[in-house]
Amino acid sequence: MPEAMVATRQSKAGGTPQQVDVAVVGAGFAGLYLLHRLRKAGLSAVALEEAGDVGGTWYWNRYPGARCDIQTIDYSYTFDPELENAWTWSEKYATQPEILRYLGFVADRYDLRRDIRFRTKVTEARWDEAAERWQLTTDNGAPVSCRHYIMATGCLSAPKPPEIDGVNDFRGKVYFTGRWPHDGVDLAGKRVAVIGTGSSAIQSIPLIAEQASHLTVFQRTPNFALPAHNGPAPDDRMSLLRADRDAYRQQARQSMAGVPYPQQTVVSWQLSDAERRERFERAWAAGDLVHILSQLWADQAVDVDGNKIVQDLIREKIRAAVKDPETAAALTPDDHPFGAKRPCLETNYYATYNRPNVTLVNLRQEPIKAITADGITTSKRSVDVDVIVFATGFDAMTGAIRAVHPITGRGGKSLTDVWAQGPQSYLGLTVEGFPNFFMITGPGSPSVLSNMAVSIEQHVDWVVDRLAALRDAGFTTIEPTTTAQAGWTRHMADCAMLTLHRLANTWYTGANVPGKVQGLMPYTGGVGPYRSICDEVISRGMLGFRLTGPNVATQCNDGEVVRLQPDVRLVLNLLASLNLPPIESMGAIGARAFVGEFNKSRPAGRPIGEIVDGRLPGADGPLPYRVYKPATPGPHPVVVYFHGGGWVLGDEQSDEPFCRDMVRRTGMMFVSVGYRHAPEHRFPAAAEDGYAATRWISEHAAELGGLPGPVLVAGWSAGGNIAAVTCQLARDRGGPQIAGQLLVCPVTDCSFERPSYNDNATGYFLTRSLMYWFWDLYCSPDDRSDPRVSPLRGKVDRLPPAFVVTCEFDPLRDEGIAYAEAMAAAGVPVEQLKAHGHFHSSFTMVDVVITGVQGRVQMAQALRRFAGLPPEVRSGDETGHRHASPGHEIAAAAS
């Protein structure tokens, strides 16, 4: 639309507030869809847009080479099939002009401009508690009074100002990629400097180099860039879309990144070098950012070693593309995991540095001292330039929200003050203390870690549907509770521990803005899981929100929507979706077969030094065992391990992933014992086998390859019960000597009356009824007070030092805590790990519950302390504890 026509849409100055149900700030992807949905819902609305037309970030970012980095068949509205049929993208990755034309096409198709006030900036927003309305002041035209206030300002729309002395002294031209002149810039024959090598620089540098007489690029931190291989939309993706458009779009909505790719399940260490390279080369040739971020192997985003493989392969590509080794080295990232910063798509970027008119200045070796009248001075040189282009990025996520105006909520609270220590929100949508205030793709939502088009539609639909429902029910205000917001903050932190994002200084964390409090701002739990959480809030009666209205009773269903660890939640949801019959309904033989088949589908675990099988004399016949040895030279301290399974299920191999993991973390040898099972062998068979096995292993430690002397014992669930009982029997029967005990979610008592048995009776895989079944098969009621099955009822003094692990969502939680407290009261050195958000199987599900890593690290450190060793495995280890920073220590533990 011509600028003159746009201008006619602007409001003239006036003092009478414009009265609407909803005011929207922004007219980009989010603002346009909001206007469309609000109108359909019968809510009056106005959008306030600082720019001269629609487009949002695509209105401002007109620098050479500007493109999206999500394929445009995915980076599109999906709410109207007729709209999809009416528009055809010309390229796989559309340019900024085409995207801007698309948004203008949408605005015209749905007649949205009539509800937009262009060239209008909100200068103040204040919540009027008496009127229960937001009062907005603007710099152009009438103020606005609205019931609901929605920020659709975008995540990357507040350019970061330059931080270099002397910018005002420069006599040449200065441009910002985020505010590029609309009539373009002629750089022909000019000496040009580009400062920054983020996405906008990587896209623009090749085109600037073609025009400039000389281009000097000033780089502080290199980023990973992948070839876009732009062209027509890929046939395979287009075929999927055309074959079943609804299924294609629905898969995107339920995916992790908002693009219809399945969740990868193969982990890096299961593949050979040749297989990994083949997968990588195929992804490299495809030119698809989401594909290479998510489809190589399942552990690339969560595991240091799995990620390093990708890093090294990309570094090979950079060295091959850039002829000068010194320049190639400067362009090669070495300070962050791949994907922890937003990788870029490039077209001829690396090849551009082979041009004779392009120079790279490595600011890590020669930082900029000042900008002068004629150019840029570093610690080593002065560069004369005619033009400086700042490609220094944005104050992401929060900058656009806080920069638009002061926002004052309930009780005079300023959003800037409330967010002084970092943004706090509920679902990334709302903020406590700011009624009727919403953010589209705000901090705390998937936003920039997703396909924004999918996330925008989900947010807009959720908000507008809620506003219509509130109106229909008579409610006039909605505001999150303190409890809900604090719970979401904790869930955000739990999710962040799953990924490697925390290991990079990036705009995701605010590290690019001086003085900004750092913290991972986007939600890392995935688009599909986030959508299900938002739906759950609704299904649970607007959980975490307080709703009020003049003629209805206040509704406040307070609480936290997610209390489980994010990966635990996914596991439990998956198990629930399978609709499996209760294990106790299968009978002992059927249950063993089921567990055996389940274990076959799981990766056994990372390679270790050696695995040896054998048999040892038990209390009443031979028992199988499996020895797991470290890769380092022995002999090693010996840990006798007892598997879980309610004394009914499992064997010496069933906890293999856990045993391998602990061997790698401890540098110690684990001997997993297969004891006799009920109902064929009832109490005290398992207990007596455990003790007999421990005594024999202690006596034959050297023959097994271990260190002679005291052993350690460990066990999970019923195995934790056997380990605890073994320590008591060893004390009472004169040995063997045990240096320490690791009890993971142990059975310690026969009582079912503790709160955890009621709180966690169902829904967390190990149920109250399953424990009834285990007990009934193993031990008669008359025998259950025997300390050999209920060690809490025995003497707990003079026992080896203990590390006791309990999980929040486990029926056995309280008896594990009670046993730890009883030992401590009796003078036994005891440490406890009370695992927040975890369930009974968390720590043994090594392959899928990533958030169990920290707990297993603590377990390993405890075992090493018990054995008289330093807490961490040293040189030659496989756990990767080689980094200086705490963040890298945590991430290395995930390897």
From TrEMBL:
SUPFAM superfamilies: alpha/beta-Hydrolases, FAD/NAD(P)-binding domain. Pfam families: Abhydrolase_3, Pyr_redox_3. The keyword Zinc-finger does not apply. It comes from Bradyrhizobium campsiandrae. Its cofactor is FAD. Residues 639-841 form the Alpha/beta hydrolase fold-3 domain. InterPro entries: AB_hydrolase_3, AB_hydrolase_fold, FAD-binding_Monooxygenases, FAD/NAD-bd_sf. This is Alpha/beta hydrolase fold domain-containing protein. The keyword Hydrolase applies.
